[in-house]
Amino acid sequence: MRTVRECCLCSQIEGWAENDLIARMLPAQPYVRRVMLESASFAVIPSLGPLVSGHSLLCPKTHFQSFASVAGELHAEFAEIKAKLRSSLGEIYGTGVYIFEHGMAASGDRILCSVDHAHIHFLPLPHSFDDTLDDDKRWIYYDGSLPALQQLTNGREYILYEKPDGVCRVLTGDDGPFESQYMRKAIFSRLERATHWNWREAPAPLRADETWRRFTRS
């Protein structure tokens, strides 16, 4: 595992300019810590590869590899900031907010999407969005809590998916690892105006900056 100084998400959360990817891609702008919302143990930052305006990442401040490995004493705090972020994005963008995570396995060295710091995606998607991503019969419904997520995944790689109605589903990697950026690609295929799904190939720092500015102005 990389050190926290080498992790781009840790750098953005802590305000370390040297490895803050958004800041490095906007060198003409004075450095600013682009954290949209935070609590004692969690922080929200804009996605560098947004699929839609408002695409945000909820991250633990501690370098956990997935939300299934977040410590039990943080579960209530997580639920509170998750609800606050979803409500705020819904009000700002006037849409339903979809949530997903591609969680790393507890053991092994497979780094998903080239980022080994846990992050849950929050996307304000248009009301016309085709949300039938859960037609696959392998999805398991659960109550959305971190204890239930930990029990269901049992240390395995997983995909978490939650629609605006709050109903949560999870896929586990029983049949082998998922494709990197699995959910980004699946959601992209259902969006009419999105132009890229691979954040590494098409980062959009100006759009990330605008997400941060719009959220903090609201």
Structure report:
- The chain starts with 7 loop residues before the first helix and ends with a helix.
- The chain has helices spanning 8-14, 21-25, 75-93, 146-153, 182-188, 205-217, and strands at 37-38, 42-46, 56-60, 96-103, 120-125, 140-142, 158-162, 168-172.
- It is built from 6 helices and 8 strands.
- It is α+β, with helices and mostly antiparallel strands and 218 residues long.
- It has one domain (35-217): 2-Layer Sandwich (HIT family, subunit A).
- β7 and β8 form a beta hairpin.
- An 8-stranded antiparallel sheet has the order 1-2-3-5-4-7-8-6, with helices on both faces.
Per-chain topology:
Elements: H1 8-14, H2 21-25, E1 37-38, E2 42-46, E3 56-60, H3 75-93, E4 96-103, E5 120-125, E6 140-142, H4 146-153, E7 158-162, E8 168-172, H5 182-188, H6 205-217
Antiparallel strand pairs: 1-2, 2-3, 3-5, 4-5, 4-7, 6-8, 7-8
Oligomer: single chain
Number of strands: 8
Q: What is the CA–CA distance across the termini?
A: 37 Å
CATH homologous superfamily placement: HIT-like
The value of Rg in angstroms is 16 Å
CATH level 1 name:
Alpha Beta
Task: Estimate nothing, just give the exact number of structural domains.
Answer: 1
Strand content: 15-25%
Low-confidence parts lasting 5 or more residues at pLDDT below 50?
none
Count of helix runs: 6
CATH topology: HIT family, subunit A
Architecture per CATH nomenclature, i.e. the level-2 architecture = 2-Layer Sandwich
Q: What is the strand arrangement across the widest sheet?
A: 1-2-3-5-4-7-8-6
- The sequence of SSEs as H and E is HHEEEHEEEHEEHH
Question: On the 0-100 scale, what is the average pLDDT?
Answer: 90
Helix content: 25-40%
